[in-house]
Design brief:
This protein is α+β, with helices and mostly antiparallel strands. The protein is 39% helix and 16% strand. It folds into two domains: 368 residues, ADP-ribosylglycohydrolase fold, CATH 1.10.4080; 139 residues, Galactose-binding domain-like (Jelly Rolls), CATH 2.60.120. Helix 3 crosses helix 4 and helix 9 runs parallel beside helix 15.
Length: 565
Amino acid sequence: MRRLIAMMMVMIFVISTHISVTQAKPKFRRLPVKEYVDKMKAGWIGQMAGVGWGGPTEFRYTGRIIPADKMPKWHPNMINQFGQDDIYVEMTFLRSLELYGMDVPIRQAGIDFANSRYSLWHANNAGRSLLRSGIAPPDSGHPQFNKHADDIDYQIEADYAGLIAPGLPNVAIRLGETFGRLMNYGDGLYGGQFVGGMYSEAFFDDDIVKIIRAGLKCIPRDSQYAECIRDLLKWYKQNPDDWQKTWDLVEEKYHKDPKYTHSICGRPGGKNAGSIDAKLNGAYIVMGLLYGKGDFDKTIVISTRCGQDSDCNPSNSGGVLFTTVGFEKIPDKFKSALNPEGKFSHTPYNFPTLIKVCEKLVRQSVIRSGGRIEKDDKGREVFVIPVQKAKPTKLEKSWKPGPIANSRFTKEEMAKITATAGKDLSKAISKFTPGWKVAKCGGDMSPGLRAEWGGKKNVLMSHPLSRTIGCVLSKKVKIPAGKKTTLRLIVGHHPDGDWKLLVKADGKMLLKKSVGRDTAENGWMQVDVALSAYAGKEIKLELVNQPSGWKFEAAYWAKIELISE
């Protein structure tokens, strides 16, 4: 009998424990559709407010705090940010989702991004150029090809992922796997998944620390990005009222310490040293959220005054905070001057259509995640959203990357990409040497025509498209019969770099030579290539600025001349 009673008591304890756990952790959370729309609208307004307010300071203060008296004053018209890369890139992702659904293939997302026409920089620009050249995702974001893979880019544009995934962190994570890998890798990808995870939770909680921890659960625990966020939470607890003290700690570890500044684009820095690293700028997002303590102005101002990419960071922090509050409760100064007809650059969306598209997509997100849409006793729609445990992607490091996927677009896919790869140097080369064309020129080091460089006048500068794809100068030429014809080049290199010169005729390699300190006296080198073997024929000449070690890989062209005698 005693044994039977004991067993019954154990069973009662197990059942009661199960009931209490079930009650403590409900399987679903409810969010009225009207409330969702109100908060989602606020998230977009917060982004626009942050980027508009911080815009005038972008990269003007690097490695130092922006003085309080240098902080711009808010004006309601600042809200109309339709030409900001912090905002318009997201529209391309939303358009892909609108057209192809929440399961849009990553290759289709890559084609759509490749065809975008707005201005881009760093990882976005490099990724798009790689896509246009035929390198398909995820390789377009892999460090072997994209030296900006750890940069801030997906972080600044990941807000959309959380705004269409309320309470659904795994949706935000998965969207990062589709769109974040177009241009980023490792911590560069995790920054966006972290931001998306914060937005996802912001629909249900206004406790900033809890929101940050929810975002933290969306990225690998052993990543340096996660370490950075944990440090921020620890330092905030130690210095809850002194954000500048925490800024100093961030600066020492995440801007100056080589163990944390080894990203393939950045390098250890300090005062006046710019950094586009996702971790460092992500820290400034979190600092605004923590030390802003729920105040709209303080949150944006602190994220801005931290410096570096000081319009992107307050855009993220402002968006997350505004989401917790909702559009109706936002002060009028942030929405009174909003132009509802303003079009986001090179996209089909204005603000009202953006809101409609997000509402359409979130319905798909909820249902595909095992949720449903019900009506309450007054006939109002309510999202019933399953509680998810975040499942981060695997750990990867940009400074020790894993293997590439060898992913290339097919001919059929390339036919869908109508934009050209690389920077347009057509005007520059037509002035330098008429008749030649330039393809696959990367945007690094500001390629173009120099009035003077290295002691020579009228110099054309080119740069490889990526670590593996060289910039190509080409021309079809008729080689005279009965004459000795030579291609004469005078080429130079950056004092701190080198590159490989390839000369091809109808695809056949005629010359492969390093251009650097060891081969080019005083920075310049004359190269003569015999073409008499092609006498009487028309051939396609190609001069390739091929990368070597990816350090100041620019080629300087002082002369491209055909000599027949």
